[in-house]
Amino acid sequence: MFGATALLYPCVLAVLCIGAGLLVDRCSGGFLPASLLAPVGVAALIALSQLSTYAHALAPATPYLMAAAALAGFALGWGRARALLRGLVVRPWLPAASLLVYAIALAPVLLAGRPSFSSYMTLADSAVHMLGADFLLRHGQDYAHLELHNSYGQFVNDYYNSSYPSGADTLFGGSAFLLGLPLIWAFQPFNAFVLATATGPAWLLARRLGLGRPWAALAALTAVLPALVYAYELFGAIKEVTALAMILTLGALVVGHRRWLGGPPARAIPFALVLAAGVSALGVAFGAWALVAVLVLAGVLLGELRAGRRRARDALALGAVGALALLIAAWPTWARASQAFTIATDIANTANAGNLHSPLRASQLLGVWLGGSYKLAPAGAALALTQALIALTLLAALLGALALGRMRAHALAAWLALMLLAWLAVTRFVTTWANAKTLVLTSPVVLLLAWAGVAALIAPGARRGRRAPRQLSPRDARRRSRRSPPRSPVARLAGVVLALAIAGGVLGSDALQYHSSDLAPTARYEELAAIGSRFAGRGPTLVTDFDEYALYELRELDVGGPDFVYPPPALAATAGGYGQPVRLDRASPAALLAYPLIVTRRDPAASRPPAAYRLLWQGSYYQVWGRRPGAPAALAHIALAGTAAAQCARIGSLARGLARPGELLVAAQAPELVSVSLARASRPARWGHAPGGTLHEGGQAGEREGLVMSTPGRLAASFALPTAGEWDVWVQGQLMPTVKLSVDGRAIASIAGQLDGNSLVPNTVPPIAVRLGAGEHRVSVTRTGFSLAPGAGGAAVLDAIFLTPAGADPQGPLYTAAPGDWPSLCGRRYQWVELTRA
Predict the structure, then answer these.
(1) 142-157: pLDDT as tens digits
(2) Average pLDDT over the chain, rounded to whole?
(3) Residues of 334-371 as b/e, b for ≥16 C-beta within 10 angstroms?
(4) Lesser CB count within 10 Å: N end or C end of the chain?
(5) Which residues, at least 6 apart from 746, have a Cβ–Cβ distance to it below 8 Å?
(6) CA distance linking residue 811 with residue 211, whole number of Å
(7) CA distance 101 to 190
């Protein structure tokens, strides 16, 4: 699966997009430069997939329609395709830069060597896009059959039935379905690929600044991968990544307007398709960046009309064709324009800052942020170095602004200036969450401006008053060097220093984020997918683990998650709120009647489901519980805690107060559990506490503080076993970097990449079997030293360690008694007691 998603899938995507780009190029008169074929192909396939899913009967055919479009493009543009292949050998700088962008963007997954996706716990919006892509490709925009009483239906309806932007989702789903790939594992490669397609337009813009091919390749690499863009790509901001590629493509088409603006009307089609793709991917908010490109072109066209080089009738024909193409390509958005505007307004004005604790800083536009998280400011020496690199990049950008004026590259200068003005204008009217998106989409523009400053120092100087060449081919470069004085060695050295500072700051920032990225646990999601296949169609299903990716993996089970954004209304009280632990003891017994299945994490310290459910299946991570056919709702269900004597008194009160003849008391015994006290353990002094964890001691849940293993070190703690034999060691916590576990000096496990969907709820690692004698033992947990592995600087929080006898019945014993015989239940400790009909 790793090879199919990380290596084969991007190759197929490249064929699809280049083929679609060739088709658009042929239809529009054959003027597109090779570097724009892939992003224009992305735009064309977004339009195609949007239209096919809008006509929902065609939705399942979307992958084949996309393949047909690509084949048609290669058939009609075969000569161009052959020339493109030859160019890859003769001029390798652009393809090399594109491949490098893809490799860096996907680095955490590539170097982990397993299918996954990065920055796992940063933001769960990617779960919505996986769910939406799957739904749209299977059902199209047909929501009439959705059930809205559970989380699955509410998510799909509240997002996609309200004109939520889905352009990137339909392209993603259609391309992955073509290969039959699970969307959960194709998601990160798709984002990395789309970001890599932005290298082409960034390359054209860098060449237009006067940079030679090697420097232009480096400029394109850094312009596409500034720290903030890289952060958003890591956590799967599919809308912003796709919109960014379209914005840069618009910029390249604006700067290269002489290729098409004065030609036949059909030449407006690529520009219109890119506009439509941006609107489909980001929503009508894309209009702010589209307006920039349109205004620059309008200014150019007006100048042509005034100079008599262009007839008004031809300009109107060009605009009419472009408007018609834009209308058709983004019709699903225009058809529900009022809802689309409402969505854009809500996002712009929302008081919900998402995962941002504070607004991002404007200085992050400059592409440098030497820290593991874009949300937190660097500290110490990293902060000083960040500020120095930001200052150098800003200096380069100021030099670039001056250089653009001397070059008289009016279209390029106007586009860059208006892009910055658009950012300033949008920032005044949006709140924290939307402002962060504007920073992401503007950062590449600032980096390009900085590279204009580098070009002013290292490229041959242009004579004042002369227009820069449209594209610096080798012949153009030689001619320019003959008529332009070379830069002084000092200026060139300063330019090289600035270039290295910009590139080093950006790539260093990306490396730190790579090192701190959290990867999704592959084995756990493969097990969840197996559950979805095994029990397909047997829902509705209640999921007690906070993990919104279960909405995709269990999509055939009509999932309800009480702690999700959209909980089942009847069971919302079982969680304390969004992301909080689900406790079935809080559920009304009658409300559970609607759920034939309950999926829980495998955790012996957690309370088992009510007596009406029996264990159907158990894996390494999950348990599936099924409701017995015809099992009635319990008359009462009460969680028990405290000593056996206290529990006995509670059972007696229930029997005397509520029980009637013909009813039974059913009690679930608490498991035999030996807890390891972390509070009394020896540990490094720098390992602090992270409040908010939920631990289990003695089979009962309670609030504790997780232990943050922030640096390499070792924890050691003692515990005592009542009997000798096989025991299972259970570890709870968020453990991305490698952590080694040993008992009595004997290594028993190496744990890594074990994360849960919510940092507030401890993850339970599958049990580790070990044979131990009765009496005292000592366990140690060691966080290993520095490593270049992905996520080695990621989350490492230890919440609990406990042991249970190996082979214990996962269901636990249930004890029954008539109400009058309730004292027979005393003397044991229980998880809960129920009152049921006999």
Answers:
(1) 998 888 889 999 999 9
(2) 89
(3) eebeeebbebbeebbeeeeeeeeeeebeebbbbbbbbb
(4) C
(5) none
(6) 68
(7) 13
Cα separation, 330 vs 326, in Å, equals: 6
Give the CA radius of gyration of the chain: 30
In this structure, are strands 746-751 and 689-697 parallel, antiparallel, or unpaired? Answer: unpaired
Enumerate domains of the chain plus CATH numbers: 2-346+410-417 (no CATH), 521-633 (no CATH), 674-805 (2.60.120.260)
Q: What is the pLDDT of residues 51-103, one digit of tens each?
A: 999 999 999 999 999 999 999 999 998 888 888 777 777 678 999 999 999 99
What is the rounded CA–CA span in Å between residue 290 and residue 81? 30
Full-model pTM: 0.92
Q: Which residues contact residue 540 at a Cβ distance below 8 angstroms, ignoring those fewer than 6 apart?
A: 147, 149, 150, 557, 558, 559, 560, 594, 595, 596, 597
239 phi-psi bin (left φ>0, alpha ψ -120 to 50, beta other) = alpha
**Tokens describing residue 485:** 């004085």
How confident is the model at residue 485, as a pLDDT?
Answer: 57
Structure-token pair, residue 515: 């090192």
CB 393 within 8 A of CB 501: yes
Among 710, 772, 766, smallest CA distance to 737 is for: 710
> Which amino acid makes up residue 92?
P
**Tens of pLDDT, residues 679-715:** 889 999 888 887 654 444 333 444 446 789 989 999 9
Structure tokens at 159: 């997002």
pLDDT single digits (tens) 183-240 = 999 999 999 999 999 999 999 999 999 999 999 999 999 999 999 999 999 999 999 9
State the angle between helix axes of 381-407 and 489-516 in degrees (0 to 180), rounded to the nearest 10: 130
Q: Are 676 and 731 in contact, with CB atoms under 8 Å apart?
A: no
Give residue 794's region: left, alpha or beta (phi > 0; psi -120 to 50).
Answer: beta
587, 598 Cβ separation under 8 angstroms = no
Q: Give the Cα separation of 124 and 127 in Å (integer).
A: 6
pLDDT at residue 24 tops 90 = yes
> Residue 59 has which token pair?
């939705």
Distance between CA atoms of 24 and 40, rounded to whole angstroms?
8
Taking only the tens place, the pLDDT of each residue in 652-682 is 888 887 767 778 999 999 988 999 998 889 9
- pLDDT reading at 397 higher than 60: yes
Residue 212 CB neighbour total at 10 angstroms: 17
* Distance between CA atoms of residues 564 and 520, nearest Å: 18
- Letter string b/e over residues 670-681, b meaning 16 or more CB atoms within 10 A of that residue's CB: bbebbbbebeeb
